[in-house]
Write a structure and sequence with these properties.
The chain is built from 16 helices and 15 strands. It is an alpha/beta fold. Bound molecules: nicotinamide-adenine-dinucleotide.
Length: about 400
């Protein structure tokens, strides 16, 4: 049994506990977090996930587990990895380190994350679940022969949208890294790149050529939404972030020289059922589409019965409504690719290897996100083949992330 230790016990850690119930050969041995650890450990024990213990300190957790997972907020990443590094340097053996998306708030931080893990000689997994979504993976597998004959996809469109994050720290661009582009653009950019990558090639195979981006604050910068955020301790008139982002990235196949385009759209104003993932890829003579809200299960709850609803988020992540016609997805951990990403990481760690997506891949995605913010700030297409631009990106911190989003989002 591989012993898993989770640092962070909030929303995503809960999702991973649900996911691990479908993964063989693992137990959740420990949880460490300022809030939620006791409840998560109890849930894990109730579901037969092992004798899950709560640890106060990261070094103690590391000593009791084989795999350490960073499921804490973005601003805490570096500090947590430093503590894991100290434990490893003082002799604690671990088989793998997992970090949830995004790897970091900016490229300088992502670089430290990747270098630190590399120096420790511990295999890593960058958790980007969407590349493991069975619907996308199966569509590609069904189309493998077609792709072989006709060539890889040349246009990918991807989107992730919901009504806005659950915890205040996500809304604070200085702590989270930005708005929806940093939070969810990382998913849509990564899956867009994957859909364009020829079958059998590494996830970082394509060469990014250029980036354009449009970001706006459309909903949460105006009343009554501004005041609703203020009630939760977030002031979007002082430190706004984008609630809408549209990023277009051009890639080049380094072998054939053929160009392809990924369009990633993300928003925090999806006042519609729950969370929607859309993916579509177009190749020469073929295509596929994925819509995560197309479910075989529909429900209806009338006004008179609505009082009895326990928790609408049990039916669908980020569900905002508990009556009317509702969508239910019976197995979200599978739908979103969490179970498959775990299986991939576990089998790689057992062999002493990085998962399919490692911290270096997370660093690449961070670079593309930073390029999007820079393109938006400069209101121009960014040339990613220009060495000067690549160097500028190394220590670039977007104005939005600096808390100066008003300069690029308000009054436009
Ligand atoms: N793959 C996905 O689709 C997905 C979905 C949601 C969140 N995430 C990512 O997961 C991470 C956590 O998000 P969440 O929604 O679970 O957040 P959350 O706010 O719900 O939970 C955060 C947890 O981390 C703990 N924590 C806070 N500071 C800490 C510190 N310094 N050290 C250790 N633990 C600390 C909190 O007590 C809490 O238990 C984020 O980076 C987010 O981007 C990914």
């Amino acid at each position: 049994m591989l012993k898993i230790g989770m640092i962070g016990a909030g929303f995503v850690a809960g999702f991973h506990e649900r996911s691990l119930r479908s993964v063989r050969g693992v137990e959740i041995a420990g949880v460490c977090a300022p809030e939620g650890a006791k409840a998560l450990a109890e849930t894990a024990r109730e579901h037969g996930m092992g004798k899950t213990r709560v640890f106060k300190k990261i070094n103690e957790l590391c000593a009791a587990v084989d795999v350490v997972c960073i499921f804490a907020p973005n601003f805490a990443r570096l500090d947590i990895l430093r503590k894991i590094a100290r434990a490893v340097e003082s002799g604690t053996g671990i088989k793998g380190i997992i970090c949830e998306k995004p790897l970091a708030r900016n490229l300088a931080e992502a670089d430290v994350m990747a270098r630190m893990a590399h120096a420790l000689h511990v295999p890593t997994a960058y958790f980007e679940n969407q590349l493991f979504m069975p619907s996308v993976v199966e569509a590609r597998s069904q189309l493998a022969a077609v792709e072989q004959g006709m060539g890889p996809a040349h246009l990918a469109r991807s989107a992730e949208e919901h009504g806005g994050p659950h915890e205040p720290w996500f809304w604070d661009p200085t702590r989270q890294g930005g708005g929806v582009c940093c939070d969810m653009g990382c998913h849509s950019i990564a899956i867009g790149m994957y859909m364009l990558t020829p079958a059998g090639k590494a996830p970082n195979y394509l060469t990014p050529v250029s980036v354009t981006a449009n970001m706006s604050l459309l909903k949460w910068g105006k009343e009554p939404w501004l005041s609703r955020l203020r009630d939760r301790g977030v002031d979007y008139s002082a430190t706004p972030a984008e609630d809408y982002s549209n990023v277009t990235i051009k890639f080049k196949d380094p072998e054939s020289g053929i160009r392809s385009v990924a369009q990633a759209t993300n928003s925090w104003m999806y006042d519609a059922p729950g969370l929607r993932l859309l993916m579509e890829a177009f190749g020469p003579g073929y295509s596929y589409t994925v819509n995560s809200l197309q479910s075989p299960v529909g429900m209806f709850i009338s006004d008179t019965a609505a009082e009895a609803v326990a928790d609408s988020e049990l039916a669908l992540e980020k569900a905002q409504a508990s009556r009317g016609a509702l969508v239910l997805q019976p197995n979200e951990p599978d739908l979103y690719g969490y179970i498959a990403e775990w299986r991939d990481a576990i089998s790689a760690f057992e062999k002493g290897q990085d998962a399919t997506l490692n911290f270096e891949f997370g660093r690449l995605v961070t670079m593309l996100i930073m390029a999007a913010y820079m393109a938006h700030e400069r209101k121009k297409t960014l040339d990613l083949t220009d060495a000067k631009v690549l160097q500028e990106l190394e220590d670039y911190v977007p104005l939005i992330q600096q808390g100066k989003g008003a300069e690029v989002l308000l009054g436009e």
